[in-house]
From TrEMBL:
Keywords: Branched-chain amino acid catabolism, NAD, Oxidoreductase. Its EC number is 1.1.1.31. Gene3D superfamilies: N-(1-d-carboxylethyl)-l-norvaline Dehydrogenase, domain 2 (1.10.1040.10), NAD(P)-binding Rossmann-like Domain (3.40.50.720). Pfam families: NAD_binding_11, NAD_binding_2. This is 3-hydroxyisobutyrate dehydrogenase. Belongs to the HIBADH-related family. GO terms for biological process: L-valine catabolic process. It catalyses: 3-hydroxy-2-methylpropanoate + NAD(+) = 2-methyl-3-oxopropanoate + NADH + H(+). Residues 164-288 form the 3-hydroxyisobutyrate dehydrogenase-like NAD-binding domain. The lineage of its organism: Bacteria, Bacillati, Actinomycetota, Actinomycetes, Micrococcales. GO terms for molecular function: 3-hydroxyisobutyrate dehydrogenase activity; NAD binding; NADP binding. It is an enzyme of class 1 (oxidoreductase). InterPro entries: 3-OH-isobutyrate_DH-rel_CS, 6-PGluconate_DH-like_C_sf, 6PGD_dom2, 6PGDH_NADP-bd, HIBADH, HIBADH-like_NADP-bd, HIBADH-related, NAD(P)-bd_dom_sf.
Amino acid sequence: MSEVIAFLGLGHMGGPMAVNLVKAGYQVRGFDVVPAALEASTANGVPVAASAEEAAAGATVVLTMFPSGKHLLDAYRGGLLAAAQPGTLFLDCSTINVDEAREAAQLAVEAGHRAADAPVSGGVVGAEAGTLTFMVGAAAAEFETIAPLLEVMGKRAVHCGGNGAGQAAKICNNMLLGVSMIAASEAFVLGEKLGLEHQALYDVISTASGQCWAVTTNCPVPGPVPASPANRDYQPGFAGALMSKDLNLALAALESTGVSGELGALAAQIYQRFAEEGGAGRDFSGIITDIREKSEH
């Protein structure tokens, strides 16, 4: 393929995504500030550049997967936009604040480029398997341009609206996910106290009005759903630190829009505590252990 993709941010999510693009025949030039990420990507067949600017030079698409909006804006202002050829499409797949996403898009457009935001859902497992869901904020023309890339890295791409709309959808989705995982975990701990077997309660919830993704796919107790992280001592598919980050983004959005989101705000508080007290590197479904421990006092 003639397209050259600069892939910046080769961590747990970005690394496998870049590998899938290479396997699909795209010319990829990767970069990460973490030497171990560069080494892992090289070992997995992803060519790496000496800097982000070198990767971006001559690329058709510059794809970023960064930890925060500050990292993205600093990179854009620090020479990344200037290093790219005019008309380059800057595709950000990070999960950041909606206002930051719109500011980044404006910076890219003012520098003579095109912009899209496409945060993802599906975790590391989805990144490795190429089954991610992308929530895209972009003009229709930009969405058409990046759709083939997203098809390689994921199973679904939803065009949510203009710049920033992808981030808005991601924040809303993950706020609901965080709230529902807490509720599911409380239900299972309550079931334990009432003498219910995990499987019996799962069999009811999974086919009744309490049915939700937090139960049927990422079940917080081992046994009923063999693929859930609960069966691997909560090794993360989606880490507690990331859920805390996303809920704090949702909290900021609730406050800036004036929405009365009491459950979202409480979930942000609960997951921040979970992350600070040892849950940062565990799967977010590990919140059940925190609920269980606090229930014993």
